[in-house]
Design brief:
4 copies of one chain form a homotetramer. Chain A has about 350 residues and is an alpha/beta fold. Chain A has 12 helices and 13 strands.
Chain lengths: ~350, ~350, ~350, ~350
């Protein structure tokens, strides 16, 4: 059994990691830290884990992390970059679920995250943890930057089309809809049930941190790629629905085929039949991404629909998938959960 | 036009008072204060009021309140009691939407609200503002204590039955369900959409502040009255559903008739036909209370179902109803809104 | 008091018309018909109307409609076209909330609605009832085609920009999100709470009936206009959020100004300050449309955000606004309701 | 691998059975039938199962069921009783998730289900499938009647207290709150999102079919037991919260201890610490029942709080638990899923 640590486990990615690890056959949670809740049993904060996770939150401790084979950082942006070097030097593998190691261009990172980067060296070593894009590198990685939630949904929809030049790379518009859990577990009037239910709004229209991350991914495939990205808040807990518009350079069957071939062997990407409209609830609690494509009649536009659970394939599930790869386990171990419908 | 002030207007009772007053033909909001948001336009905090309320929040100011005919306190418990005496002396009428003047027994008040009362004199002068119980006194009141939300739903269901001795007064169990807006507009993890939607829980089972208030009301009618009261949090914004169980001393037609007669002239209490199951959504946004009664077959139990919108008949709407009475206006002015269905 | 009839009142536009008319000072509901519920009191089907609407549903009857000054058709598509001629001949004014008279090109209508049109003559006479576009003609109209819900939100956002040539007319993408009430009140597994809550999906990506209607509106202003339109189902009852992407031919201040000037005198269109993100809940239950505009940095794209309540400004509220114009009343009469927040 | 059949798999218990069986290590779904959807791939109706369940719905066929080791009836009430005898004779084990074999008194059954029973012989043979009550008999059963959802939540809360005579057996009031999925997957206006969200209502106050079933359970333990039972519809998909009031014959520590001891070895019943308020979301998707107990101060009343997921411990999960027992497997196999929080 691999020994696992979680740094900063009181948020939604923390509890979701614990939910997945509790049913993982080859990994054992050894330590979970939280400055604010040290000494409190995990199951008191997250009663769904009663009887399944017996640990208490403990004080952050590099020494404790060093007794692990792999450590997840489920901390705010700008935290892992201060601690990761010591762990890497000690031979510990690390997956950061925040954004510290996602952007390779440090100037872009500083611009969007409002601070200097504390560990450029780690950024260089980090592998971007989207298995469908970088599986080989993840297998050998010591440090993985787990992708953003919107980023995962949009990138998976576009990768095959950009690679095969089936769309105009600078014509992309990604209109994305997210459940409220994407905003994290902080106390916040704007995410209270009274403010966020029975309503829809766009936010950060002028610029969201996932924009440069999506662009970086797309440019790995086609350096002319660019996009418009607008996120919206939906009145629900989990789920991301990306609706991606682009100008097509091929007909619908060709695009459908490209998607199907690209993902034929992927365990967690499901290309739906022509004419489908994926629902976010079909992946609620599951590590799946479902994609459908429509070429519009009498138009050169193609519309891609891509859904994930932002806390699973968009965060903790993808992190476990990366862990499985990094530790030489079956990639799907612990990730067999099926979407909860209804 | 009567000149109206609101003290502490950034919460849900504040915005609801403004929504109702904006369509009131004989009252004009003159001042609304908020220490934390002074200088901010009201419509920036509450965009539903754009174009309808042009005021800014201003600093709390007794002088400003004194230019009003009537002032609503939409402040936390323990606030109005420190300011009300000066206003009363100046001849201003006051309605407190918090709990400062609801309980006549100051020892009980201190026990439940954890502090000494700052103005026993005002408590004595205050009229409990449930028009269906105390209309005559409200007409002449200078200070009105606006009832609690749960209290309104439960009291209205029980008043006629206790008065006519149709139930055993010590057999009452009130199982109450409330939308999340009852918890107010503070930033709070437990009322976030992610925590409070798709779930139901009881809270404060061992004791809730509305318990002594309901008991006081019931004992006005029958001094042997007592009850068990358990509140529950529902995954919705607005609405209270009280399910009240008691031992019947009469048959269903007699109880139905007592309710219908008691409320025959009341503009805001609707006794539904036998066999009805009122839905909270039928009063969403409206000042109505709907009540149905069922005597169970082969049993001595009667079940009362009572629904209100906690922010309207349970708070701001009832406060406007009290204002109308205190200022000699038509009791229903500004309160003609109909429940939003769907 | 004008005498009003409603044909087919058991759906959501029917109940919403009744809610609005019950607080209208110059109109009185005389007759409401429903084949399926004839003989049932309205308030039994819609308990929010208890004590406010005393009518029963009656059998459809041209004679009854003829006793009215104005008749609303709240019927399915393809119904009003069979009955309207007789009413128009009798001098009755008519507003159809369905789609029978919205499209001027009958071939297009037949293509999207799957049948021959029964009254081309009425289509010619009909005025398209978007007051912000056609107020003068509505004032004199005898037959008004009330616009579709998505159509209203998208058209209002684009009208000023197309008129002043501030965007490329063929670059428009409208990604629209709607609450479930837009699907009507029929029994349907796909709109059940268990299927439609906690989920988001696109639908009708290949083609939705509101597409030709939006296109017709936009081409009134610029005959090169065309768009991509994709509707999505949101897990909420009411509200439409249109996110409209287009290529800008002007800078943000110019576009903002054009919107503000265009709607400066409009009672129900609110152009929000630069940087705003309107929320659908700010118009819940109200006849308002709120619009914000963002020009993206380092891009030629402009993003318009437009929100309405699909049942009010998107249906019954706009119909009452049209009625007010047709009957020479104050355009805002009965429409002073404020969005319910929270 | 045991071969499993499901009769009538297009409802919510059907899809939930498939979700659980797909991750069961010792059981394999062989056949799933549906008259209305025969020939349709299961994953087309339930896209969460894409890639996990490759079967099509087939026509109902006794022959097909006979090739199974165990057959679940996920059919409406009154269906299994016509088919079960032939299966039992063929040596097939059967679990009925409907109510055909739950009530031992056939007169009571006929009274509540409105028909004569077609197989009194099977009722006699059937074991009531609440493992915490009847584990030994279930181990040897050929036919199991899977309990009702409300019944499970209420019975588990009360069993230890009745057994140890810690409450007055005729003083019980069970106020129960259920998510909408309890009403099944039929097309129905009253369970549409627009009608059932943002609202709470009681229903069937005068009598619900789970009442005689709860009473039968309680009388197994104390033949003086009786209760008042009122169900309520909550605006959420899954979850039951039972709030049970009774007169205590012991103090809180004694009652707490009785619960803890009674369930000490139970894998799926979690007695929470004193002072707890269980949330339904803590068991969403899981086979757990969480129970808390409060003795009210200055009162002889005790309040029990009991939560389950109505589709898991209240239906399909409990059915799999029974299957595991009947087939000699580990009772917890396939049931390790953890509540989805958030």
């Amino acid at each position: 059994m691999a020994r696992i640590g979680i740094v900063g486990g009181t948020g939604y990615t923390g509890v979701e990691l614990m939910r997945l690890l509790a049913n993982h056959g080859q990994a054992q949670l050894e330590v979970i830290t939280s400055r604010s809740r040290a000494g409190t049993p995990v199951a008191e904060v997250f009663p769904n884990l009663r009887g399944r996770v017996d640990l208490e939150f403990s004080e952050p401790s590099i020494e404790a992390y060093k007794r692990c084979d792999l450590v997840f950082f489920a901390t705010p942006n700008g935290t892992a970059m201060h601690q990761v070097e010591e762990l890497l030097e000690a031979g510990i593998k690390v997956i950061d679920l925040a954004a510290d190691f996602r952007l390779k261009d440090l100037r872009v990172w500083s611009q969007w995250y409002g601070q200097e980067h504390a560990s450029p060296f780690s950024v260089e070593r980090a592998v971007y943890g989207l298995p469908e894009m970088n599986r080989e590198q993840i297998l050998d990685a010591q440090l993985v930057a787990n992708p953003g939630c919107y980023v995962t949904a949009v990138t998976l929809a576009l990768l095959p089309l950009l690679k095969h030049e089936l769309i105009r790379p600078d014509s992309i518009i990604a209109d994305c809809k997210s459940g409220v859990s994407g905003a994290g577990r902080g106390a916040n009037v704007s995410t209270s049930l009274c403010e966020a239910s029975e309503s829809v709004k766009a936010y950060a229209v002028k610029g969201h941190r996932h924009y440069p991350e999506i662009r970086q991914n797309l440019r790995q495939v086609n350096d002319a790629a660019d996009l418009v990205f607008v996120p919206h808040l939906m009145p629900m807990i989990r789920g991301i629905h990306a609706t991606v518009y682009c100008e097509a350079l091929a007909d619908e069957p060709r695009i459908q085929q490209a998607l199907e071939l690209f993902y034929a062997e992927e365990p967690f990407v499901d290309v739906m039949p022509p004419g489908s409209h994926p629902e976010t609830r079909s992946v609620k609690g599951a590590n799946d991404c479902r994609i459908a494509v429509h070429r519009l009649p009498d138009s050169n536009r193609v519309v891609l629909l891509s859904v994930i659970d932002n806390l699973v394939k968009g965060a903790a599930g993808q992190a476990v998938q990366n862990m499985n790869l990094m530790l030489g386990m079956d990639e799907t171990e612990g990730l067999s959960g099926i979407g909860l419908m209804p």
